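fwd from M.: "can u put these together and see what the complex looks like"

so here's what she sent:
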Amino acid sequence: MARSSRDRPAHSYAAEMGMGREEIQRRKEWLEITPQDEERIRSLHTLAHEYADEVIDDLYRHFLTFPEVADFFKETSVLDHVKAMQRDYFVRLTGGNYDDAYVEERLKIGAVHERVGVDVKWYLGAYNHYIRFVGAKIFESMEDRPEEALATYFALQKLIYLDIGLAIDTYVFQRERTIRMQQEAIRELSTPVLQVREGLLILPIVGAIDSQRALQLTEALLASIARTRARVVVIDITGVPAVDSLVANHLVQTVEAARLMGATAILTGISPEIAQTLVTLGLSLGQMRTVGDLQGGIEEAERLLGYRVTKVGRPEDSYPADG
Amino acid sequence: MAVPILRQGDVLIASIQSAPTDEDLRLLQETLVERIGRYRTRGVVIDVTLMDVMDSYACRTLRSVGQMARLRGAETVLVGIQPDVAFSMVQLGLRMEGVHTALDLDAGLSLLRARLASRQRPSGGDGAPPHQ
């Protein structure tokens, strides 16, 4: 595994997560991992090799008593593969250098586990199992040197805590990345600015407004004003579930920015609840032009722009006649 | 560099270059207020299309020009504020109240014409564009 991550230096989990050499060093210092500790863990390497199969078999015997795990490993080939990986992982624990390559490897494994949906609790269960199993073996093999056995055990424990920290961080990082991607997706669905007449734009806002979105809305609106030479903008907030002082402030800013570019903004679609909230909070949208609904807003805008919309005849007359 | 001021009928047009110094702006204010009287000007258009930054001093000076011009009997329209300039102005809380704004020189001149026309005919003042 270490080899494969070295073959493809292009994607580095450590780099992505900002886990540089310094950070790794700090983590080791935080856990008080000394060179002697590393030496002690390395001395377990033969022992680990010897018992690797046993500990992994034991671990899976335990895991497979849980129906959800058994379900996951229905196919024997999958189980064998995972066990082989697990064995590598276990042996690598005592494999010596705990440097950036080691961290990269650990992060990668964490990311893979996160992707296939292995919960942190399973992860911790496995560590718990390892440390108990290996602990027993350490004390067995160093019967005559109990102090050294304890020191070795603690060294191993420190290393495992380092691993756990890395694993949990990958989980958090991956989840946060998912959230970021979703936020971006939402942002992309964001608000269109529509031109309905020459000089008249409509900005229908649907969904909650946060600062990020408010900035984006304002930017999009200003760019559209410049492009279409709009003189009136109707901002419809019928689809906005709630307005607090922050959102109200954003709206005021948007309206003012539009005015700076020579466009008048009309705010429409303030629901009874939002009207009550605004008044109760003592927020006045004072200098804003507000009209009840979008239709009213468009009519007001047409009036300001000097349009007069006239209905010609009955609806059926508006169908094209033959000849 | 001093801001050039052009005269077009009863309107004065000042076009500010990309990065005016505080001194340029102060000079502009002084010159404009003086020329309004000299040329019996009724409207002033200040074009800031080329300004990519509007700091608080520039903002305050331009606002004052608007107020002083009104005292001297002329209407002022500020034109050409760029989208990102408008955006950063509201974020910084810079206000431009009391000054009319329009998208560009063309829109600014029509706004001014409409306002001046409506002032001449107080009875039919409803045809003005939507700028207060």
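replying to her w this: The beta strands of chain A are 194-197, 200-206, 232-239, 264-268, 289-291.
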